[in-house]
């Protein structure tokens, strides 16, 4: 499993609904509200045998009121 971080920008006023929908998918290990350009940040463990983009697209990115995402790949823990 490899961890990736995904930030979500939501339609104004819909952040809590998006957060609930993300949790309902049961694939995030952590989910935070954030300040700045994005509203939420999730830590997700992607199975090693899965393509990250396809996994995230099929698992999360169809949730209504997600306006934009930013995915950060991880490589090594120190």
UniProtKB/TrEMBL annotation:
SUPFAM superfamilies: Dimeric alpha+beta barrel (SSF54909)
Pfam family, one: AsnC_trans_reg
Limits of the Transcription regulator AsnC/Lrp ligand binding domain: 6-76
Protein name: Transcriptional regulator, AsnC family
Protein's organism: Paracoccus laeviglucosivorans
């Amino acid at each position: 499993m490899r961890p990736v971080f995904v930030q979500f920008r939501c339609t104004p006023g819909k952040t809590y609904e998006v957060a609930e929908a993300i949790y309902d998918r049961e694939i995030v290990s952590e989910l935070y509200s954030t300040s700045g350009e994005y509203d939420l940040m999730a830590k997700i463990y992607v199975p090693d045998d899965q393509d990250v983009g396809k996994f995230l697209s099929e698992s999360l990115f169809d949730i209504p009121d997600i306006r934009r995402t930013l995915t950060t790949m991880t490589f090594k823990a120190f």
